[in-house]
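Box 3.1 A note on notation
Throughout this textbook, protein chains are presented in two layers. The first layer is the amino acid sequence; the second is a token string describing backbone geometry. Keep the layers aligned when reading.
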Amino acid sequence: MVKRIFAAFAAALLGFICNAGNPYIPLWEHLPDGEPRVFEDPDNPGKYRVYIIGSHDVRFGSYCGPDIRAWSAPVEDLENWRDEGPIFTYFIDGQWDVMYAPDLVEVVNKEGVKEYYLYPHSRGAGREAMVCKGSRPDGPFTPLNMTEDGRGTLPGSIFGFDPSVYVEQPADSPAGFRAWGYWGFQRSSAAELDPETMWSVRPGTEVIPYFIPASFSYGNVREIPGAEFAVYEGEDLGDFNFFEASSIRKVGNKYVWVFSGHSGPDYGLASSNSTLRYAYADSPVGPWKSGGVLVDSRAIVLGEDGTSLYEGYSGHNTHGSLQYINDQWYVFYHRAPRGFGFARQPMVAPVTVFADEAPVAEGGKVRIYGYDPYTKDHILTAKDSNGHEYKGAEVTSEGFNIFGLDPYKYYSAGYACFLTDKTLQQDSWDVWDNAMDIADVKGGDIVGFKYFGFGGLKKAVKGLKPFEGVNRKNKTEFNIFVTPKTSAAFRIAIWLDSPYSNDVWKGTKIAEIEVPAGSGQKLTKLTAQVGKFVDRLSGKHAIYVTGEGDGVLFDFHGLGFSKAGKPLEKPYVPKIEILINGKSVALPEIPVRSTEKNGLVSQDNYDIAFGEEVRSLSASSPDPEVGIEIDGMTVRATWHGKTKTYRIKTACVNPLTYTDIPDNDVIRVGDDFYMVSTTMYFCPGAPVMHSKDLVHWSIVSYIYDFLEDDDIYNLRNGRNAYGSGQWATTLRYQDGVFYALFIANDQKKTYVFRTKDITSSNWERNEIDRPFHDASLLFDEGRAYVIWGNGDIHITELTPDLRAIKEGGVDQILFSSPTEGIMLRAEGAHAYKIGDMYYVLTIDWPRGGNRREVCWRSRELLGKYESIPVLDGPFDGRRDGVAQGAIVDTPEGDWYAMMFQDHGAVGRIPTLQPVTWFRGWPVLGERGKPVKNLSVNLEPCGSDYVWSDDDFDSPELALVWQWNHKPLDGGWSLTERPGWMRLRGMQLATGITDARNVLTQRTVGPASECVVRLDASGLKPGDHAGLCAFQSNYGAVEIAVDSDGSRSLRVVSRAGTHSPKNASGVSSNVANDGTYASIDVANDGEIQRIPYDGTVVYLKISYNFDNDTAMFGWSSDGESWTMAEYMLQMRFTLDFFTGYRSALYQYPTKTPGGHADFDFYRLRPVDAL
């Protein structure tokens, strides 16, 4: 076991002043679950700092991250926040624990020494109750209650979900203090702690298993038979509504317990747990009375007409507490922009607190309201005309600036606290840029900021510095920074106090800015004179921005006011340029996300994928204050104490391999990845490929040797399986067993295979007499399902052993895909349960668009599914979209998608796309567009083995080869003539496509050549042997033996379109419209014939998949080549439904028994020759 405990480094960091609003720390920081505390500054005795200790949303695809994060500010300067760094992480068994909502408390022991106890809320198995100790509030911290191997906590460790601790220092305590702990998720518990451990129950006391009532939603109490709660008799249990996130504070002579609870219906809105509630008592363990809502992060305001309240911001969840700072109570909580729970931001609001002197037992109360510094009683509530009243804290843009924001500064749009379209506010990640845009503002959208302190602040108070307000000489201008998104004219209206001018709101439009048609779509500053409206204002006032026009109008970057002679500008952010091999490379916008494996605790690491050998690396910035350091393949750029790290990583270049590997399904088992693909009628079938890095794949086995021993697979009686056979296999691993399931559409049934050793060819088989088209297996809670279909996606439950359809089990339509504007409805299902969500990936094909990947999701397996496109766009110069395949995670926690693209004659080629989790959706590629280059955060391992040369030296047939249909026993040998592949004609045929024992291998693009050496001495009259570009529209070069025993070299093709070359080697039979003219060929497809006296010949096919042509050649010595006069125009046709293959063949037309020997097979990409 290894533990990494971060030492404090705060003294080395400068405070980060960012015109602090709300959020009160930089917009790029994502610190939810913040627990506020005031501690003495360990480096400045006698001085105090406010600390916020929280979890850290750095994973983006799920909650939190590997560190407990802390920021702090001097109580006398609440705009000067400092990143204390990761104050605790825990590394065990090769990965970093994820940390949820923590708490940190200070105790003074009986020797008078300050000690700090951290409750990190590890999500590691068996480690939720971990407790740590340190001598400073910023760490380092050492775990106290871990087993010797570090994997679990000691017996008696009591803490559970969302731990919180309250400490008192009574004079009569032997330890110098007493402490109580609280925890729980949808059930609250509490206990007095043993001061000797701070992690176990105080001797002589017991855990209180049911502390206050929890609810499913507001007023909907979770009934627990026999439970007795620590509440006053007569209290309505439906008033408490506990959900999670306990925290306790002392207010006067009372105890206030803060928690995340369900609120909303108590003031006329929908129930949400995105609220903090409170209860109060005379002791830390109650009994309690409900106080109501403390803050609703949905930003509750009066509705437009005053008859109801309105949610001005999105909700998700929240967590926080109360803290008294500079004679002012504040509530700390977090918000979730767009309702997205994995990039939450810390917020704060002042509150007015009234605590009666009388004990609660005698009717004393604690009442908490929103705070307004400009009213006599400092109370602020929102009340509609129907009597609904929200009394909690107001959600504003101010943060600690409770007298309003200094109007003469720039503020990012990220500080908006009111949005009518709550989906517009974007996330922020750039540690150099305190920016957070509101994107795609439409006509009618309203964006609000509360409040600007037009009256100024004359002197420092409550930790705030004075600032100048407006006056009549300022000639104040309003400034807004936008990027127009339309070529049409539009307007931006600016409102004071309210966006509505009715009698309820009494708003005033103070400016209307005209943006003319044809305005450049670039960052633009727009201004308007507003002095006559604002230069005599006092106090603080809200500002609202509204769009006026049709459709999407602009991206909103920021705003602020300026006075005459002092223009306002958007804050400067320096640029850097990185050159690789002398070429400037695009710098990624999205940082590397944290995973359990990489343990990243910040969002300032970036990977640059580069698809070539790196011969030189340099970096520069025009700003001399930017420091550049280059270390190997890493560039570090530092500005104002913040470092961005760029790692140059060898890129995976798509396509992964330019060859036919369609209908991919990929799974991971431990550190190993396995992929299956469609090979239809080829035998053995359903190849299993293995990789360690998702980039390099090798065939390791086949699921079956042949599907059926019938006329279809034996090419008898005019029957064949072309275009049929094994389709779209689903591969899953469950309880130590690998399962593969697919249909053969010529058989109208489903095949199920299973094995414990996927690298062997020993698969057990059963059949289900029902064809599940494009199926996906899903195991869930001990049950097995197959999700399948086209258009209507079905779900059918199988028996747990997958041997039959479960009688009485689920068998229904799961969802129906749209029909309007769709050429091909949903198919190619891949189903997953990830977290608590069910996902089904399918393809569809809109008319006039690209084949694309669509994701469907639901919280319930049989619930309502919603969908969005997650990959849609042309790739590699083709409009055949990249879609259909699987998503898979790595051991490091990264996600990737293996998808294929229809790519003409070479077939359907695999691409690897990065997956970014956005609002719970797996978005593929770069913002939903396929990428050519990407880096894979796995060590490169191995080489590809899906096509290969072969000297035929092994007595076993190499796995890269497959037979066309079922081979004839005795029809081939690698031992009769060692070092040669012998093909023996045992069944008469009329041509290549009905010949037995045709041996095939994938072709490779974009251009390649294959060469064989053929000994034709064993051929009989009427025999043919050669090398074929194999598909329905095939072409071949061969030796044919006439009836008299003479040999000829021939170029043959299935009758159709071919292109004779002119002297310059360019196709000469191209019509004016660019199509190829047909030419006549002989009945057996002969295009060219020349006598050949020898018995050994070299044959060659040159493939060009840029224009899908093939050329044929021969040589007697392998050095001097003659090329045929014709060029084959290859076509991927659905009657065969596979990419072109190179095929070795021998077949008789008169007498069986002859044979052809092949010495070697060489396949080379042209650029490697």
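The helical segments are 531-534. The first strand starts at residue 35 and ends at 40.
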